[in-house]
Each structure stands twice: as C-alpha cells, then as structure tokens.
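#struct-help
A.M.: can someone run this one for me? Single chain, 410 residues.
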Amino acid sequence: MCLYNVGMFLYEKAVGIAALRNPKARKWKEGRRNIFDRLESSIKPGERIIWVHAASLGEFEQGRPIIESIKAQRPDIKVLLTFFSPSGYEIRKNYPGADYIFYMPIDRRRYARRFLDIVKPEVAIFIKYEFWLNYLSELRRRNIESYVVSAIFRPNSVFFRWWGGAWRKALHTFKVMFVQNEESKALLAKLGHTNVVVAGDTRFDRVAAIARNAVPLPLIERFKGDSRLFVAGSTWGPDEELLQQLINDNPSIRFVVAPHEMDEERINRIIRQTKGGAVRYTQSKEDDDFGDVQVLILDTVGILSSVYGYATWSYIGGGFGVGIHNTLEAATFGLPIAFGPKYHKFKEACDMVENGAACSIRSYDELALWFAPLRDDDVQLKRCGDAARTYTESNLGATDLIVGTVLNNR
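D.P.: on it. Structure tokens below:
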C-alpha cells in the first residue's frame, strides 16, 4: 500500500503538470477543483444515497441500466454517479438519471475518508474494473455495503500475481461480486470467494432498451430509400481504408459511416475518395433528394445506436487499434457484424465470432470475402443476423438480478 499511495501522489502531481498543455488533463484537474466544497453544498444531510462509480463512458453504459432501474423502483433513494475520466464525465455530466454527478477524487487515503464523510452512502457499486484500494479499504472499515458488477477476472490480473496481496485483500470489500462469466467465478473460487454470481453483462439490457426505444430518423430512412444499407460505426483510419474500397466496389449499396473522431481532414478524405458521392448528415435535410449519393457521413453524436435499426449489415471500428467499440448496439438489431483483429478482450465479440454472428477481418480481401455471401445469399444473411439477435436476447437479465440484490430489504 505504501508504494501504491506514493504512486497516487505522484500521479496527481503529474496530471497537474500535464494540465498546463494537455486539454484532457486540464479537464481532469479542473473538474476536481473544490470538489469537496461542491459535494457538501449539493448533498443534503440525511439523504439515502447509492454511490455508483464508472471509470469512463463505456463503464457508464454498463452502469446506466442499474441506475435507471434503482430510480424507477426507489425514487426516494438518491444516486450519486462519479467518473474517473473526463471522457465519461464531460459527456454525461448532465445525465438526468442520476441525482448527483461528480468526478471521483483521486484515490488518496485522506480524500477517500473525506468523500465518504460527506456522501455517507448506504451502498457503493463499482463498474467492471474499478478497484481503488483506499476507497475500498475505507468502505470496508465503515461496513458500507459494496458491490462490483459486470466484472471480468483473468488469470494474468493483478489479483493472481504474487505481489497482488493488497488487491486480493480489497476483494473482501464486496458483499457480492457480479461477474460476466464462469471463468471469473472459478478464478475467484481459487482465492476462497464464494460470494460470486455469474450475472452476465448489463450492457445487453441497455442495448435491448435502446432497440425498443429507437428514435425514428426520417433523414436516414430517406437516404436509404429502396436500397440496402451498410452501417459502419466508430471507425478509425485503418477501418476507413478498407471500407472505402468496399464502398467503391459495391455501388448499389448505400453506406452510413460514423467516424470515431470527426475531424475535418478525415471527413473530407472520405468525401474525396467516394466515387459514388458522399454527404454529411449535419448538412443534409429530411426532404433532400439524395439521388445517387452513396455515403452518408454521420458527423454527429447520439444517434448511431438508432441508425443500426435501418441497416442490413454492420462494421464496428477500432479493431486495428486498441480494441473494437460497441458491437452489441448492432447485434441487438440482428445484424451480421465485421471488425478488425483486436477483439479478444471483448467477451461478446469472441462469443459472436464463435456462433457465426460476427467475423474478424485483417485485410480488404477478408472483408470482401465476408461481405459477398451476406450480400448475395439471403439464407446466409438471415442465419448470421438471427445468431446475433438470439445471442443478445439470451443474455438479458443481469440488471434485474443485480438491482434485486442491492434493493433487497432496503
């Protein structure tokens, strides 16, 4: 713990220095300025609070069904949502589902104590990978009911290393550990933990809700017209290079491309290289006659999950970088899915490759080889699409299980 605490101290100082030049570090620092004063002025004494902590945006999407279910069942209980990263907080700081939204003060012992002195949560819920030793130690000392949800444990995790004693001790904080798979449960059993429940991933419940409440998009419907639509979501440069060739080789198919980063150079490159013509979503109108335009660039946020509802096939970006983005938003609509080679850390992607709903590709030839049968053979298209839909439907229910446990006798 001594080295850990030194590391936290140095990390805080390093971010302070980086904030002089780095915008993200600046937001990280500024978002925590006077945070305890702001917490004290916001939270009223005597309020019943459940604290939910997410590292960033992806973990928030896993926590969101839990938050909304708690609020629906127990509106008298307040939910405090905290983030570690600016990429989560800055996007969701106005999320209406939580009563309070803040950055989590960095994990130093005195900060953890002051935070809990102010908040006094009845319950603490950590999403997936968030194991902050000082907060967990203080929750344990105060006997505050705590849970980790949608967690995945792997043999090479810190908990199973010879030097991971402090992290192994931290696991004793949790009343129940809700994990995604049987492997995680078996690994924890080797450490003597029997309070482990295989609940799955709450994101399945989230994407199912998105599909049920998909927003009608007249502009997308008009762009699609009588054509079939291929939607490529959260794409990066290497993805776009392959997709550009697929687009130009399939002039009868219409494409929606949603770049992960919507910089002008990237968008203009797609427009220049598309032989069949490309336009921006934000510069289009619902009554536009798209004529022979083949590509619509989704240069906006918040609607991609609904756009998948108009698609016949999908491609998910990120697989040539640090890892693929959300595949479940496409799968819940029963779409065949392709993505790059870096997907093995994502259980749902591995499962869907195995059951035939998804395919990992490494080159344009492999992308074309995946796409052609799905374009030309309706039987194969239906088989892959059904596999994706069945997979998402068979994994529903984690939220009800977790919230039922948290709210039991409360």
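A.M.: thanks! The chain has a mean pLDDT of 94.
D.P.: also worth noting: The first helix runs from residue 2 to 18.
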